[in-house]
Inverse folding.
């Protein structure tokens, strides 16, 4: 109830509305693991060229919600999703949607940097290769360079493209994973606690990067760090015990939360 | 209320302190260290016990078996007289193949030893050399027909009894009537040795020849080729089927009662006695499909069935060991399930799969019982040209030689075991190297 109210109230933004077309609309999204309901009817609208952060204590359902957006939950046995999730007006869970193509449009970056045990070049080129986006060597080279540049890794990696991606430092690996995700030109990038395994400096680099990527993509980030949510995101959704408690402008959530639970969480009393 | 609580706290606290004091008591501490020391001694003793028996086994094998790798030979000046060979004019190849090499050899031998016309003396003289000695001359002549009419000095394989005696396995102190080499033969051998006409050379027969009732002509050639054919069949059958089954069970199969039953049965199959697989092979491959008896292809199929559960279990373990983060990464960029498996999971699991397969094959290589039932205990003289021809296998050859009565087969049995062990060690070392080389850390 509150969530819907908040999402309506979130329209007061400085930038013109046209720039912020709704990318993904979620209505009454429920997730079941077997008989257990893990997410109790969530309504969140994700806007293009905007960072939305999902916060909340562990086990609150924020990662579950994130994984609904590119159907990574499909791989979990006994997991069922109801409600409607529309990407550009098309139901993500419609039978006609090919999950492989969906994931090309909705990329993902994981909690632990997980580059393939292949070369840096191959890591980035893998997505375009399996989707047939590029064919010639020159195309691949261009995509790899472009993606690494966007991920802020080109200068560090250009001389060692043939070396294994697993040999990079943790922060570099995570940027490589971001480059790999953007190499297939997705529209939405999901990030599941992308900085939780990184040191503060690498975290700052990734946060800057997220801010730059916002120019081109809709970004959804799950984070345990409220400071991070406050720094990088425009919209924030607070989850608690499988419920969406509050969703709105980040500034408003952190300065003037409507719900007492939100206030308790951001001041460190629950979580 | 609070007083009671404080009291009980102080009691428990002093209790704990007393307990700690007891634990730190030096006699208890010494007892604990003593227990650890004893346990270490037991462990070390167990290892020493095992090593002693291993050393004993290897030692006795090496001591008994190395002799078989060298074979006594006697150098004879063979007169390749055309008349003695029964040749006339310029003989064609067919004539050369059918020539009387034995007659020529026996004549030359008689001359060398100064043997008269006494039949018993002649028989003793001929017994110094192997029955196959004339064939060695034949192959020489066939390779170079111009030798006809010349006299050539040839190292010819000695008879098994002579070989055994000269290796010291038949004592000269045994009374003559109980000795397989008589006094006359010993006298000849001593004379030949004094002339430098007796020597020991590398025993190529051991690696090339097939079965023979003459120990000096018996070899493991057929068994080695038969075992190689079988290993190829095992690899071609067990690896693809095993990997496909494991991938299906691990990646696609739903978790339900049926897959549980299959899983339990695969684990049970790995423990089924091998002779049962032999009976299965006999019933199905020979009786139902009418495949040839004694053929490596049948033996290979039986061993493949036996190896299959090992491959499946190893492959599943290797697939499970691929970190889920790699699967997620691939799924996240939009790889299909099939692409995740072929591009990421299988390449990363491959070292584990190959290790399991090689270890399964090594087990199959040493397996005897199932092969007995599909007729691979056979007296096969000639090399099998294809896997469909009769052959034996290394362990079966050992089994057959171990049962042979001649003294000369004893060292050959040990040598055969050494050869089999060499194959097994090579295979296991390959597995270890593969695992080391492709081991990955995440």
């Amino acid at each position: 109830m509150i969530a819907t109210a908040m999402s309506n109230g979130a329209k007061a933004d400085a930038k013109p509305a046209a720039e912020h077309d709704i990318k993904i609309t979620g209505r009454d999204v429920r997730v079941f693991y077997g008989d257990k309901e893990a997410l109790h009817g969530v309504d969140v609208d994700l806007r293009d060229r905007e960072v939305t952060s999902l916060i909340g204590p562990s086990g609150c359902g924020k990662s579950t919600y994130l994984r609904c957006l590119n159907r990574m939950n499909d791989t979990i046995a006994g997991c069922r999703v109801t409600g409607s999730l529309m990407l550009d007006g098309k139901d993500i869970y419609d039978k006609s949607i090919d999950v492989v193509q969906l994931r090309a449009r909705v990329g993902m970056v994981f909690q632990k940097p997980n580059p393939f045990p292949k070369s840096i070049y191959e890591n980035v080129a893998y997505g375009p290769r399996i989707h047939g986006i590029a064919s010639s060597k020159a195309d691949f080279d261009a995509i790899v360079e472009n993606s690494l540049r966007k991920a802020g890794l080109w200068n560090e990696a250009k001389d060692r493209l043939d070396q294994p991606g697993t040999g990079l430092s943790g922060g570099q690996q995570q940027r490589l994973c971001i480059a790999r995700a953007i190499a297939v030109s997705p529209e939405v990038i999901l990030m599941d606690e992308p900085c939780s395994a990184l040191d503060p400096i690498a975290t700052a680099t990734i946060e800057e990067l997220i801010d730059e990527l916002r120019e081109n993509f809709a970004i959804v980030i799950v984070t345990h760090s409220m400071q991070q949510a406050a720094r990088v995101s425009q919209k924030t959704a607070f989850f608690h015990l499988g419920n969406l408690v509050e969703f709105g402008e980040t500034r408003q959530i952190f300065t003037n939360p409507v719900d007492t639970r939100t206030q308790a969480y951001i001041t460190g009393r629950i979580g | 209320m609070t007083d009671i609580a404080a009291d009980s706290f102080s009691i428990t606290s002093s209790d704990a302190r007393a307990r700690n004091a007891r634990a730190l008591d030096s006699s208890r501490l010494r007892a604990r260290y003593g227990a650890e020391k004893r346990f270490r001694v037991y462990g070390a003793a167990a290892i020493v016990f095992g090593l002693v028996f291993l050393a004993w086994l290897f030692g006795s094998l090496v001591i008994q078996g190395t002799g078989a790798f060298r074979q006594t030979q006697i150098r004879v000046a063979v007169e390749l007289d055309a008349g003695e060979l029964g040749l006339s004019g310029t003989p064609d190849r067919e004539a050369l193949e059918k020539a009387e090499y034995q007659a020529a050899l026996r004549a030359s031998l008689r001359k060398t030893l100064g043997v008269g016309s006494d039949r018993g003396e002649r028989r003793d003289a001929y017994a110094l050399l192997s029955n196959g000695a004339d064939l060695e001359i034949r192959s020489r002549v066939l390779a170079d027909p111009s030798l006809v009419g010349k006299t050539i000095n040839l190292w010819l394989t000695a008879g098994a009894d002579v070989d055994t005696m000269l290796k010291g396995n038949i004592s000269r102190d045994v009374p003559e009537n109980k000795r397989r080499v008589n006094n006359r033969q010993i006298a000849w051998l001593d004379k030949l040795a004094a002339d430098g006409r007796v020597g020991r050379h590398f025993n190529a027969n051991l690696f090339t020849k097939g079965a023979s009732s003459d120990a000096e002509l018996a070899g493991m050639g057929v068994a080695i080729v038969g075992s190689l054919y079988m290993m190829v069949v095992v690899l071609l059958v067990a690896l693809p089927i095993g990997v496909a089954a494991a991938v299906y069970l691990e990646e696609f199969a739903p978790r339900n009662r049926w897959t549980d039953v299959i899983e339990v049965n695969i684990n049970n199959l790995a423990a089924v006695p091998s002779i049962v697989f032999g009976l299965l092979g006999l019933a199905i491959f020979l009786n139902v499909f009418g495949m040839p008896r004694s053929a490596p292809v049948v033996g290979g199929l039986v061993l493949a069935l036996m190896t299959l559960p090992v491959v499946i279990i190893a492959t599943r373990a290797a697939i499970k060991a691929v970190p889920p983060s790699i699967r997620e990464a691939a799924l996240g960029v939009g790889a299909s399930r099939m692409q995740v498996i072929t591009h990421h999971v299988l390449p990363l699991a491959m070292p584990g799969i190959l290790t399991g397969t090689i270890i399964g094959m090594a087990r199959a290589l040493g397996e005897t019982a199932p092969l007995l039932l599909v007729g691979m205990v056979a007296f096969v003289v000639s090399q099998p040209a294809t896997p469909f021809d009769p052959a034996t296998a290394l362990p079966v050859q050992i089994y057959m030689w171990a049962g042979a009565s001649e003294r000369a087969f004893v060292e050959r049995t040990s040598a055969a075991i050494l050869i089999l062990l060499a194959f097994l060690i090579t295979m296991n070392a390959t597995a270890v190297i593969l695992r080391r080389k492709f081991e990955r850390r995440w």
Summary: Confidence is low (pLDDT under 50) at residues 1-8 of chain B. Strands of chain B lie at 70-79, 151-157, 198-202. The first helix of chain B runs from residue 2 to 24.
